Amino acid sequence: MIITADHLSVRYPGAPRRALDGVSLTLAKGELVAVVGPNGSGKTTLLQALLGVVPHESGTVSINGKPIGGWRRPELARVIGVVTQREEPAFSLRVRESVFLGRYPHLGPIAPPRAQDWAAVERALERADVLRLADRRIDTLSGGEWQRTRVARALAQEPEALVLDEPTAALDVRHEMEVFELIRELVGTGLGAIVVTHHLNLAARYADRMLLLEEGRVAAEGRPDAVLTEAVVARVFDWPVAVIPWSDGSPQVVPLRPAEKRR
Fold first, then answer.
1. Nearest-angstrom CA–CA distance, 3 and 262
2. 39 and 74 share one domain
């Protein structure tokens, strides 16, 4: 396993309850795990705890069998590539320059770029389908192009897994689909991926497994059709839903109007 979390709990100072309470999760190579749940259910906290950004009150986290506390940040960045929820460009870099930032875990603080670093950048640009944008400035990109550039930067780290927090936030339908298609394609090459998303239906179509959180606890875990049942989704999200199968067998959630509530 690339990532293993066992009975992980996190409590923020002064909080009335735990942000995470006994959550377990694993990620293997070639696997896509979607983490879903209502606002405030602990999705982003889980990612931060997996990466050692926030301390855990109890439980364990290991990366490739090594406890998270034993990893230096540059070492960890060579294993896990992260795409955060929000990022505003600080400088008007070109796409190739922005993607090159992903090589810093492989370089010393003042080490010059090597041929192998530029080769890794070119591979990342191609894998994320932004090679054609390499000379564009990032402040001229569309939302979907910027997200792909950020994925390319993570790929330039040459990681074993990607962790993505709401990678399709504020994107339109086409760009949402393009990002999920890209992630699924990358997983098909052997990468592991954890994706936090509010899009239950996209998660159901693309993920191998889903983890549904509710107030910091695991409400359901497993294959999408085992997680997204009408009873579970309606209870966790406190809203009536219908769940219907799509042509590929994945469950699709339809929120109901109050008058449509099933008896």
1. 40
2. yes
Number of independent structural domains in the chain: 2
* Adjacency order of strands within the sheet including 217-222: 80-83, 161-165, 192-196, 32-36, 209-214, 217-222
Q: Report residue 117: phi and psi, to 5°.
A: -70, -45
Statement to judge: residues 149 and 75 lie in one domain:
no
Please report the beta strands in the chain, taking only residues with DSSP state E, as ranges in sequence order: 3-10, 20-27, 32-36, 58-63, 66-67, 80-83, 161-165, 192-196, 209-214, 217-222, 241-245, 251-255
Question: Maximum distance among all alpha carbons in the chain?
Answer: 67
CB-based burial of residue 238 (10 Å sphere; 0-12 exposed, 13-18 middle, 19+ buried)?
A: exposed
Q: What is the pLDDT of residue 262?
A: 63
Nearest C-alpha neighbor of 19 from the set 38, 57, 45: 45
Give the pLDDT score at 93.
Answer: 93
Give average pLDDT by consecutive 10-residue segment, the chain, 263 residues. Answer: 97 93 98 97 97 95 97 95 83 93 86 90 94 95 91 95 92 90 95 97 98 98 98 97 95 92 64
- Structural domain containing residue 18: 1-79+162-226
54/169 same-domain check: yes
Q: Which amino acid is at 48?
A: Q
Which secondary-structure segment (H or E) carries 152? helix 143-155
Bridge-based pairing of strands 209-214 and 217-222 is antiparallel
The CA distance from 106 to 81, in Å, is 13
Are residues 173 and 71 part of one domain? yes
pTM for the model? 0.94
Residues 66 and 94 in one domain: no
Q: How far apart are the first and last CA of the chain?
A: 43
